[in-house]
């Protein structure tokens, strides 16, 4: 099926469907994680650290396509909750190596099945073959557009002080 022309059905464009898919996926996962006091991205950090012990904070941010400030806040929150520890790297004193604590590992073990169930229920309208195809197709599109996978991609550029000075109080040009 071709991409819908915006004047016929703007809700069937890749951007519109992709955005809504993301909203559904995050909401489904948030339902599972809310009782834990975690956001989906925080549980994503726990999943990554379980899969790759000893990952440094910068690499984790790159893998999750998050800027340093965002990944730092996520890790700080998980550290305060006792799920993660940060230590100075032996190889590079500027780097922080992240490790799941015993509490973090227990959280992963107990709640990963719930996260998987949330994903499965979201995709329950698809057959197993369709689920595999969906993930394969989405992965191909993402890989083909890898240059756009960077923190802040698609955001409006920051205004220069000169441009800010020329804007009216309502945010529009003078």
Report the sheet with the most strands, covering strand number, pairing sense and barrel closure.
2 strands, antiparallel
C-alpha termini separation: 45 Å
Question: Would you state the CATH class?
Answer: Mainly Alpha
Tell me the number of structural domains.
1
Rg over C-alpha atoms, rounded to the nearest angstrom = 20 Å
> What is the oligomer described by this structure?
single chain
Mean pLDDT: 86
- Tell me the CATH topology: Arc Repressor Mutant, subunit A
Q: Give the name of the CATH architecture.
A: Orthogonal Bundle
Number of helices: 7
Low-confidence stretches are none
Helix content: 55-70%
Shape: globular
Main traits of this protein?
single chain, 174 residues, mainly alpha, Arc Repressor Mutant, subunit A
Brief digest:
This protein is mainly alpha-helical and 174 residues long. It has helices spanning 14-33, 40-51, 57-64, 68-80, 102-122, 128-144, 161-165, and strands at 84-88, 96-100.
